[in-house]
Amino acid sequence: MKRFLLGSVIAIFISVIIFFVLLPLEKYVLESIWQVLPIPGIKQPVWLENFISVGIMCLLFSLGCTALWLVAGFFFYRIIDWKKAGGRQFWVGLFVIMLLVIIVAGYFLNLQTQDAGRYIASFFYAINGLIIYWLTSLLQSPSNVKFAPFGSIQLYKVGFINKLLN
Alpha helices of 76-114 — where are they, by DSSP H? Predict the structure, then answer.
């Protein structure tokens, strides 16, 4: 139990670090490369602050979904037969709900932006949520549901996860 909790905290910490590395890069892309503009009457720095605060709200929501997955995988899924261990439907359901909530929230909480900018911001929020949820659940899912995240079977077969975690 202690090892699982420590590993979960480390995996979540790594995901959060990745998020805080991506956020300034996304801000730079929005501001300098794609030149996303706020609606008339809103200043660019105000909109960029809003982008970051909505991004942090999306981060917290994806961390909540990740924590729910880790708790459910640890306490509610038991192995009777490896092929029937389950968990993938719940993992995918949480994944879809998380992405939908993040995309919709990202769109409607960025009303200070022109339409194209809202789509781009929502895309960035979805990518951030996807990285946090998928990477953390890939690295730290409990052993009875460790093959539920997409791509985990392939990464375990080549030994990538085992080398990374041991």
Answer: 88-108
